[in-house]
Amino acid sequence: MLILVPLLQAPPCHGRQTGIHNFQESPLSPAQALRPLATLQECGAQVLVASPHSAALQEAERLGFSAIPLPRVTDQSLPIPGLAQAAKAALWSGFSEDRPALALGSAEIPAPRDLLGEVRQALEAAPQDLHVSCRPARDNPCQFLVHYNLLDVFPLYPLEPPQPDATWHIPGARVSTPFPMDWTTRLHPLPPTPGQNPAQAPTIIRRRVPAERISYAPGPLAENDLAWLYESPRQARLVIPEPLLPGIPGIHAVSPAQDRGRLHRVLSRHGRAQWRLHSPEESPLPAPLLFRFSLLRPEHGEERVVDVPLSDPYGPFSLPPDADQVPAMILGLLQPLEEGDYDIVASGPAAPGLWSGSPGCIRNEQTGRPVNGRQDAPLVLEPDGVAVAGPLGRLRDASNLLRTGKARHFTLRSVPDLMSEAEQAVRRMIRHAENQGGAAW
After folding, report:
1. I need a surface site. Which of 11, 18, 317, 434 has the fewest CB within 10 A?
2. SS (H, E, C) 330-377
3. Are 171 and 313 within one domain?
4. With contact defined as beta carbons under 8 Å apart, do 421 and 21 qualify?
């Protein structure tokens, strides 16, 4: 196995806080940092040190390790800073992409032989995958809060498929599914029409601005006239003249604009899983955005909130499989903010299978109990910065594979658990003294 060691010198303030002291933060000299790795070479592994510093390369060669120079390293990304550049340099020097490799990011490994055994055991299960050593997250993301600017909130009315024989059919128009509306609360309540056949004379309620001021009259419907259709004393339908519908395939639901004669937003569906939001005649939406859907079933008193984070607000996204069956939706467009004034504080996006809910009401989906503190949170792992293993070509792409969820995790029993800052300081002091051949104090 190839042991790849990116030995860098990061800015003094750069702190990974991995629970052990990594190469970039270590006060040890190159000789003190590299000497414990000789044990790995004694186990049959080949140690390759990659560094932009000549002193480190010279010390590596003196210890019998292979050495390869790096240009100035700027990559500080997870799981180990400089790993991508070190892996590329190893590939350029002639190592194969399929060569089993272990990258180390720590200068303090108490039991190198044990660590090598644990890594080999992890690789046996899936030798072609990337394996990243992890530990329980110090800050559990289920408790993270995000500040948002509320850009827009609007109802979405699903459309009925065209059915010329239906009682609600309006020639030259599309009609929505029924949605709740209490007609008795309107300034002009709709009187019942005894004996009227809706199929012969559907009652059209023309929208006015503001929307509370409505009048009603039997059709016909003007080409630019969005209207309400009386369904029952507590239900209505939206009527949209076909000329107002944009030429978008798969239109599922629409949201009317406040002024007459146009649509505000359109939701289209492509297959069972792919959805898109369209904004006819609207200014472009910023990115990224969080789409917060409220899927409503008023007849059952149900409201289900679904958060969809999107880097492209006009790109495809997924909703629950039964989203096309709900009679009404409300969609809020939330823009995440890093600073400045905000409208909403909300929990970060839910993680199906781990947690769900909203601020103050987060639920651990593994236990079914509310999260009232760290002790109630689901187990979430984060890279500890110690070890990354797999084919050398996978190590080169480790950052992307980790970000896209295409990496496996494993925990190292041979590496100490998370320690306090004081414990780390004492441990470094003892280690430094031992390397100097004397006592710690």
Report:
1. 11
2. EEEEEEEECCCCCCEEEECCCECCCEEEECCEEEECCCCCECCCHHHC
3. yes
4. no
Q: How far is CA 15 from the centre of its chain?
A: 24
Helix, strand, or coil here: 228? strand
Q: How many CB atoms lie within 10 A of CB 207?
A: 20
Cβ-based neighbours of 398, under 8 Å, separated by 6 or more: 79, 80, 83, 84, 87, 103, 130, 132, 388, 390, 407
Place of tokens 């609007």: 154
Tally of domains in the chain: 2
Among the listed residues 6, 208, 191, the one whose alpha carbon sits nearest the alpha carbon of residue 87: 6
- 89 and 193 both lie in a single domain: no
For residue 20, pLDDT over 60 is answered with no
Task: Provide the 3-class DSSP secondary structure of residue 69.
Answer: strand
In a domain, 355, yes or no: no
Rounded to 5 degrees, φ, ψ at 146 are -125, 140
123, two tokens: 């690789």
Q: Do 153 and 109 share a structural domain?
A: no
- Phi and psi at 182, nearest 5°, equal -90, 100
For 348, other C-beta atoms within 10 Å of its C-beta total 18
Nearest Cα to Cα of residue 332 among 316, 351, 313: 313
Q: Is the pTM of this model over 0.90?
A: no
Instruction: Show which of 324, 348, 372 is a domain's final residue.
Output: 348
Q: Two tokens at 165?
A: 């024989």
User: Running DSSP on this structure, what letter comes out for residue 258?
Assistant: S
Q: Which of 52-61, 110-119, 126-135, 146-155 has the lowest mean pLDDT?
A: 110-119
Same domain, 186 and 71: no
Question: Tokens 């990496």 map to which residue?
Answer: 407
Mean model confidence pLDDT for the chain: 78
- Which one-letter amino acid corresponds to residue 112? P
Residue 65 confidence (pLDDT) above 70: yes
Q: Please state the length of the chain.
A: 441
